[in-house]
Request: fold
Amino acid sequence: MRKAVYPGSFDPVTYGHIDIIKRAALIFDDLVVSVLDNKAKSPLFSVDERVNILKEVCAPFPNVKIDSFSGLLIDYAKENNIHVSVRGLRAITDFEYELQIAQTNKLLSQGTLDTIFLTTSLEYSYLSSSGVKEIAAFGGDISKCVPDFVADKIYAKYDIKR
Ligand code: ADP
Reply:
């Protein structure tokens, strides 16, 4: 049984993340998309809100489960008997950061957690959660970045009526 975790902040989930989820779900038998509860960040959406949004977005994919975790990914992976982490790569800037995380996880897990990278589909290479939030905060159009029901929730956070 090939099982993997796709960890991230997903604050909020974008079409870029959804594309990675769809593609990883074709590669693995079981994919757990897990929201990192990072106490060092002040997110727009709570962990519960992000989990619920992801559940709705991933409802069409029967082998995708949604979860959350705090602490180290290697500990979470070990507890859940997962040996592969999926991450997305948009550009060279992602690569340096992602390579460092992947190598650290490999070392700390004593080789039991590997990382595979899926390169972004070109049409989503510009997309980031922080970019989406910045556009939305000024009332800009995010319809090409996130599903409509997610866009509504983002605008509501910024008290923007559209
Ligand atoms: P983190 O806070 O861990 O970077 P994100 O939610 O921003 O979490 O991203 C989770 C993963 O999804 C990362 O590997 C990131 O590179 C990838 N990702 C984000 N946006 C895109 C995109 N548009 N295309 C492909 N991968 C993406």
